[in-house]
Amino acid sequence: xxxxxxxxxxxxxxxxxxxxxxxxxxxxxxxxxxxxxxxxxxxxxxxxxxxxxxxxxxxxxxxxxxxxxxxxxxxxxxxxxxxxxxxxxxxxxxxxxxxxxxxxxxxxxxxxxxxxxxxxxxxxxxxxxxxxxxxxxxxxxxxxxxxxxxxxxxxxxxxxxxxxxxxxxxxxxxxxxxxxxxxxxxxxxxxxxxxxxxxxxxxxxxxxxxxxxxxxxxxxxxxxx
Length: 225
Ligand SMILES: Nc1nc2c(ncn2[C@@H]2O[C@H](COP(=O)(O)OP(=O)(O)OP(=O)(O)O)[C@@H](O)[C@H]2O)c(=O)[nH]1
Ligand SMILES: [Mg+2]
Known about the structure:
With about 220 residues, this protein is an alpha/beta fold. Helices cover about 35% and strands about 15% of the residues. It has a single domain (about 25-225), classed as P-loop containing nucleotide triphosphate hydrolases (Rossmann fold, 3-Layer(aba) Sandwich), CATH 3.40.50.300. Bound molecules: guanosine-5'-triphosphate and magnesium ion. Magnesium ion (MG) binds near residues 39, 68 and 123.
């Protein structure tokens, strides 16, 4: 039974950090955030940026469909056997925080089927500012918000914004069109998060996912050290 009701989001190594043969299992990184903020786009871009260096798999969560997994499959970001969908059938945070059994089964199935893996990305279904992952499911979590959701989101706080190991502010290319002040978002995020990192991304232009990919590389280096 894989249940963990902890709401504390501090980065720790999950209890079962080793495989049965004693080697270290894949690092598991969760991506959460509001509906449409760019979680799947970030996962796709991370797979493209990292797949030549690392062995990667992805678990997606949707409430009623396999939409996000199908997007990743259509875009061939990874071979099909490396992508698994979980249909939560309920509020997304239930499946990533309260009863994580379906997601744990998916990550363990992926390790068995295509492992050894370096990295498993777990995308939550779109949710609200309170959504966080159980530490029994992931080792680190990324919270993705976007500038079109309003530049007051970092100030509003909530555990995703304040405690995620990385806060991503996506769609910076849209800031001029929606009147979002990126400087204000950066300032408010710093106030809420102290030293915890924040990455500003636009997945349609410029450096794209690079700041997030660099952060993931750092996490992988620390994990394997
Ligand atoms: N302009 C712009 N659009 C983006 C960017 N990133 C993602 N999008 C678009 O935003 C929409 C939603 O992106 P997704 O990646 O599906 O968002 P999501 O957070 O996975 O959505 P849910 O899983 O439904 O919660 C899509 O149409 C993307 O193409 C970006 O940096 N800039
Ligand atoms: Mg998605």
